[in-house]
Amino acid sequence: MEYAIRPMREGDLDQVLEIEALSFPIPWSRYAFASELKENAFAYYLVCQDGEQVVGYAGMWVILDEAHITNVAVHPDHRRRGVGQMLMLALEEAALARGATRITLEVRVSNTAAQQLYEMLGYRRTGVRRAYYTDNKEDALIMWKVFTCLESPAGIGRLGRSVPKKGAGLYE
Ligand SMILES: CC(C)(COP(=O)(O)OP(=O)(O)OC[C@H]1O[C@@H](n2cnc3c(N)ncnc32)[C@H](O)[C@@H]1OP(=O)(O)O)[C@@H](O)C(=O)NCCC(=O)NCCS
Known about the structure:
It is a single chain. By secondary structure, the chain is of the alpha+beta class. Helices cover about 25% and strands about 30% of the residues. The protein has helices at about 15-25, 30-40, 85-95, 110-120, and strands at about 5, 45-50, 55-65, 65-75, 100-110, 125-130, 140-145. It has a 7-stranded mixed beta sheet with strand order 1-2-3-4-5-7-6. The structure holds coenzyme A. Coenzyme A (COA) binds near residues 80, 81 and 83.
């Protein structure tokens, strides 16, 4: 079976919440996801499915020319198979199509797995939010990626093949 990416629906939430609970110390509630899907016009959420099973998801807000990734998670049984990368690239494509020129996220300083994924995709560290996470007062790294002309709307479709080299970020 191949992985497939599509927009998240309310019917996915049971499976999404299971992955959320397996992935984060402060999981989002059903209400939080449902209001993103139903009430937030800036929000865009995707799932990755393997047959009938949702194995990962990711979401963002796109406001004017900036996209802000709100979450990305992959079921532990499906990690290190490229699902996280596929979801991130699909979000970036959607962000570009909505007029974003750059994209940002926060990540725990201890979350080296996610940081490696983001750095591989061209995100660069630009700052720190002190004690951002309320469970343990951990700092968040702020990361940004500025879309290059290869990834401009004319280049959509080539994005999946344009994984930037490390050190190529504008904020380096
Ligand atoms: C971070 C996360 C989404 C990555 O998803 P994934 O599907 O396993 O990632 P991919 O298979 O696409 O990995 C792509 C690349 O990212 C890097 N990477 C991913 N997981 C890694 C790990 N555990 N250790 C080191 N590098 C890792 C590697 O460079 C990897 O390429 P490789 O497998 O060829 O070496 C997943 O670990 C997860 O759900 N974690 C819990 C939730 C979370 O922390 N979300 C991010 C919040 S900011």
